[in-house]
Design brief:
globular, 6-stranded parallel β-sheet, alpha/beta, about 10% strand
Length: about 375
Amino acid sequence: MAHVFDLRKFVAPESVFGEGAAALAGQYARNLGAGKVLLVSDPGVRDAGWTGLVRESLDEEGLDVSLYLNVSPNPRDHQVMQGAEQYDRDGCDCIVAVGGGSPMDLAKGVGIVHSNRRHILEFEGADRVDRPAPPLICVPTTAGSSADVSQFAIITDTARKVKIAIVSKTLVADAALIDPLTTVTMGPELTAETGMDALSHAMEAFASNANGPLTDLLALDAMRLVRANLPRAIAAPEDLEARGNMMLGSMEAGLAFSNAILGAVHAMAHSLGGYMDLPHGLCNAILLPHVVDRNFQSAPERYMKAAEALGVSARTPAAARAELMRTLQDLNREVGMDKSLAELGVTRESLRALAEKAVQDPCLTTNPAELGVEDIEAIYERAL
């Protein structure tokens, strides 16, 4: 008997979506039994006012707060360990993360370090976390990383200069408070970078060899939303309809990739981010057209459906492949992400080392095409 559906599991946090969601952090922390909260954020989010907004909601519930702001883009292993030390020292029993992917990933790391009493780098890979973390509430302020709804945490191993992926359902937040209002303070560059990250999440989840009916539904809608709304969100940053649709697309893409996992774009971007500390969303934007072009023949029907979601009407796989790559490159140009890896300082001499790191990334296991070091090096070279 033929199998119609492969077994798939789907993990998601409790989510509240809409204007005003961020101000519910105190109520959720109180409901989770919090007494003292480690509030994880970063200086940029604090200066935009969102850290303060969330802190007010915690104060209103009478909760003590310990503030941790030592979070950089591509968060470091030593920052996670420092945050865990502060969590223990200050007697915290709950974590609230406010910001983009970096504060949320760091907060997840702090939680599992505290509960498992191990160094953050020991959790690299899938299902390596034994004990669940303390309660975690995520308040995203960018429309792209989707760390608020995913079972991933990406941390930089500073000694090896590589970004490690930690994948575990213990990293799923207890609550994701998704408020489009928090994204209006993003500048055009960050809006574009995070938006292209969301599109990469959606396209890789849809093409993944671990896709399923629910992840497909979410990924396709996320593609449509990003394509229709990202240019508008950049041109009119206070357009709440565009911002809200981008936040919705980011959430859908996050739920899709958290469960279907990703592919070569992210494996290669993680290598670039760890080795050269480059912006994750920009790396994804540059790599996406080249990876799609390389993968197309391994999943033509999937990529034809993705192309249709992005507004491409092509009747043959060959036409869809060419038009899809052109559409992605045009979108990069429209949102200011039309750069090359060479412009970011990547040299031809570094490509082999980057490829050797990328081939070890767990995201590569669900890529539709099997890629070795030489294949990945060739894609990097096309993106130079």
